[in-house]
Automatic annotation (TrEMBL):
Species this protein is from: Paractinoplanes pyxinae
Superkingdom: Bacteria
Residues given in the record as ATP binding sites: 386-388, 410-415, 507, 522
Name of this chain's protein: Acetyl-coenzyme A synthetase
Binding locations of Mg(2+): 544, 546, 549
Catalytic activity entry: acetate + ATP + CoA = acetyl-CoA + AMP + diphosphate
Residues engaged in binding CoA: 192-195, 310, 530
Amino acid sequence: MSETLANLSSESRQFPPPEELAAAANVKAGAYEEAAADRLAFWATQADRLTWAKKWDQVLDWSNPPFAKWFVGGELNIAYNCVDRHVEAGRGDKVAIHWEGEPGDTRTITYAELLKLVSQAANTLTELGIAAGDRVAIYMPMIPEAAVAMLACARIGATHSVVFGGFSVDALSTRIKDADAKLVITADGGYRRGKPSALKPTVDEAVAKSPSIENVLVVRRTGQDVEWTDKDKWWHETVEQASPEHQAQPFDAEHPLFILYTSGTTGKPKGILHTTGGYLTQVSYTHNAVFDLKPETDVYWCTADIGWVTGHSYIVYGPLSNGATQVMYEGTPDTPGRDRFWQIVDKYKVSILYTAPTLIRTMMKWGDDIPAGYDLSSLRVLGSVGEPINPEAWMWYRENIGRNRTPIVDTWWQTETGGVMISPLPGVTATKPGSAMTPLPGITADVVDDQAESVPNGGGGFLVLRDPWPSMLRTIWGDDKRFLDTYWSRFGAGAGSGDEWIYFAGDGAKKDEDGALWLLGRVDDVMLVSGHNISTTEVESALVSHPSVAEAAVVGATDPTTGQAIVAFVIPRGSVDTEGDAGDQLNVELRNHVSKTLGPIAKPRQIMLVPELPKTRSGKIMRRLLKDVAENRSLGDVTTLQDSAVMELISKGMQTGK
Ligand code: 6R9
């Protein structure tokens, strides 16, 4: 990685925080010094933001690395922290969730109402035989009951495993089996792209293959006809009839809270295990710090799905533990029109928006005039997560959505890290378009070479995390060995300085001249062209910086002369003519543009103009599938793809040379 092209590109624009926001910010520059002086004391202070039934005896037990124990001996209840304590403090009438259904129906749920629902659901789960430590699968659309189901599990100490609504029968049944779940909570369906999309038939098939499942709890959302088995129970006939009284019991700080599966690039999905006290401490702190949340006045909206870790940490546990008022939206951004997001921001006066680069680039493609038609003056902080955000997309977000006023926080983290790790602080950091900037207070991230030596400013290499952090994964469910192999053996204990344990994140990164961090994508995606390591992210950003390009995905395809050659898949902006000669001309222009921006070595061998790119449901580009196309192979596993028709479109274009 030392030879990356990374340092050929440069970004000199910089945006200091707005003065007014900086003056009133929740977290100021001193937090970095405080954490640097005593990291564990810093995290103990953050844990004190929560309500504990029993205080911990020790902040961190790292005597058996890499198996961490945080807040040893402490006890708390997560649902109590997310719901009851706000009601007890007299904030029961405060709105917790402004829910917006795709067809336009709405629900407003206060903290007092949330407490009732969560208590009822907790009572029902108990009646269905679910006890602390049991696993519950949740396969739901984006409706309030999804959050209620998660909180009800947490309340009784059951471990939830949320599976994306829309994953296949196979994906659902392997996850049920791996966790040995006893219950599935689901719905008849949800609304997507203007119509009901069924969930129950998938659950029926998966449950038929899953002997561990004893009951299925079904929310009625769409009213579609459903098959009914003797394991099925309607939510409205059980939960909504149950007693609203439920006393939350405290659980050990290391009690398992949830399992969430990440597919990674190959192999069987990994069940990432998170526990109670450290997880809630970090997601609660980071939600407050990174978004500068003012619970009394802000309206927060995270557009993620609950089936992605972002939904867990920054729709459910972070915001609710902080007593936030938030928007939750069921559907797609283009239903009924491409202005739906801006209409929602305007309607609820959203002040903090957290979304993904894929959506920002899609909005760019749809055109500036769409957001321009809305009053977005309520916005004061914008966030990004999921992929590196290209500088051009960052600038578009700042100019067209933030109207050049609001800070952008580009937050780097993973399912495994549980909460945000690298991000600007909106009242402190002078941001650079495309950089996640620096590790948060209390976090030690670094970029190292293959000998685990820290690279100097200006250098590139592997992103690592040096010290344990509260919301770190505790293991891979049922597979400690894979946990060790995947994250801790690359720079094994003893590499670098002494017996330090170094967490390998799997991402490439560089440090710029000021030490700010730039994420370069998964190291598995790095291309090797004529002996040079080239990051997919940088070639993609070079392409996106051309005014005709909305989105780009780049892969390295085997090449007889250069080892690998760069093949790019490009989505043109809405207004661009790509028919016939115009398309050919654009192609030549784009190849030259990359060559000029990054150097001739980065010039793509081939550029395909495509209408869409294959993405996971959390919006990440699946380069692996594009590589299959570029190398003329049959496609690998497509089960985590958001829209499987996309690959047909792309493969067809490849054969006809378009
Ligand atoms: C939260 C989440 C983790 C991977 C991660 C990295 C990529 C996420 C990013 C980012 C650059 C950011 N990633 N945020 N890359 N800048 N701000 O996405 O979790 O689904 O587990 O994915 O996503 O490659 O390693 P998860």
